[in-house]
């Protein structure tokens, strides 16, 4: 017997948090009986579980890496008819969903899966999963500005966690600079707001790494399945192993 939201997330219905919302709203039933208690359990091998009347199938897990172009919405549909991630995945038979989001104007590495439990862990702030971006910004942030990023920036929704920032490229005339920045949170438009706060608005933003994975030559607009080694790396990151290792080094253990 397992918690119902865990079964639903593992089956790829949605993230665990979204599955909890589905249960609370009365859209989930077990053997024909609507269940609204978040602590309810079921046997995925014997019980018939439905969401909005549709049976939940236990399908093989799919893990993809996609190089999202700028001007594409991180969604599986858009009422306005704008380009969405799903448009690039038409030959993927499984129903997958994005792990976190990239803004409309942000490009780069986006993970997609039907493993809701893993997606939930990868995006939860307590696990501190690293995400690295290359931000091309207006002007050149000098040492003190980068130090502010490293110590944390106060935004309207609170102080950010310390980031890792370093120069990648600098325009000789000082018109722009490309900065590599690694964060361990996932607030809305966080990187852009951090650079706004130090007076260097972002001109171009690309995610180049997630939990140790990189695009590895994957062309813009293309996707590929993750390898077994990459999946294992993600699962270790989802358990916060990288964060614990860094904390142990810092504390001398």
Task: Give your account of this protein's structure.
With 253 residues, this protein is an alpha+beta fold. It has 3 domains: 2-55, Structural Genomics Hypothetical 15.5 Kd Protein In mrcA-pckA Intergenic Region, Chain A, CATH 3.10.290; 63-125 and 213-239, Alpha-Beta Plaits (2-Layer Sandwich); 130-210, Alpha-Beta Plaits (2-Layer Sandwich), CATH 3.30.70. The chain is 25% helix and 28% strand. Strands 7, 8, 9, 10, 13, 14, 15, 16 and 17 form a 9-stranded mixed β-sheet that branches. A 4-stranded antiparallel β-sheet has the order 3-2-5-6. It is elongated and about 70 Å long. The two termini are 38 Å apart.
Describe the secondary-structure layout.
Blueprint: E1 2-3, H1 4-10, H2 16-24, E2 28-30, E3 33-34, E4 41-42, E5 49-51, E6 54-55, E7 63-68, E8 97-98, E9 106-113, H3 116-123, E10 131-138, H4 143-151, E11 154-155, E12 158-159, E13 164-170, E14 176-183, H5 190-197, E15 202-210, E16 213-214, E17 223-225, H6 228-238, H7 241-250
Parallel strand pairs: 9-15
Antiparallel strand pairs: 1-4, 2-3, 2-5, 5-6, 7-9, 7-17, 8-9, 10-14, 10-15, 11-12, 13-14, 15-16
Helix pairs in contact: 1-2, 3-6
Labels describing this entry:
3 domains; 17 strands; Alpha-Beta Plaits; nine-stranded mixed β-sheet; four-stranded antiparallel β-sheet; 253 residues; alpha+beta; Structural Genomics Hypothetical 15.5 Kd Protein In mrcA-pckA Intergenic Region, Chain A; single chain
